[in-house]
Design brief:
mainly alpha
Length: 165
């Protein structure tokens, strides 16, 4: 048979040089009437390359889909962890406040009660029942601040805490 690559080169030479003679190997009836397909190997290779390209595109699409799914999973896990972290930080802050409050109360309990003439001080947060019902989270912080202020004044003036409700 005719070497297709050789035939293509010969055609290109003839295209660029119209006076060139057709090489003897190509000077056949089959070549002249077009029954020899010099481009069949090229067409076959193009088809193979297009199949490979499609396969790569499908692989890339699958990989991208898997990565997108993994990214969504990682993002959801990150959000869950951030929420858990915020909850843990809030619990830690509340625990630290409770510990400080307990230490202050313990310190007050170990003091000797005053004797002789004493002055009594009572505090009340007006409307606190309604505020607790409507804004419990804010009231917890407000009450902690109130207790800290009063206890600081008790310490500053040598007072004695009897009871906190």
């Amino acid at each position: 048979g005719i070497n297709a690559e050789y035939g293509i080169v010969a055609l290109l030479v003839m295209r660029d040089n119209p006076d060139a003679e057709l090489p003897e190997e190509l000077n056949t009836e089959a070549f002249r009437n077009g029954s020899v397909d010099l481009f069949a190997p090229l067409r076959q290779r193009i088809a193979e390359l297009e199949e490979e390209k499609e396969s790569l595109i499908q692989g890339q699409t699958s990989a991208i889909s898997a990565l997108s799914s993994s990214l969504a999973d990682v993002t959801a896990e990150q959000q869950r962890l951030e929420a858990e972290l915020a909850t843990a930080k809030a619990a830690l802050a509340e625990g630290e406040r409770a510990l400080a409050d307990a230490r202050e109360r313990l310190g007050a309990l170990t003091q000797l009660a005053p004797v002789g003439d004493v002055a009594l001080v009572f505090t009340d947060v007006q409307g606190s029942t309604t505020q607790w019902e409507m804004h419990a989270d804010v009231m917890a912080s407000a009450l902690a601040t109130h207790n800290t202020l009063i206890r600081n004044l008790i310490d500053e003036h040598g007072g004695y805490e009897v009871k906190t409700e």
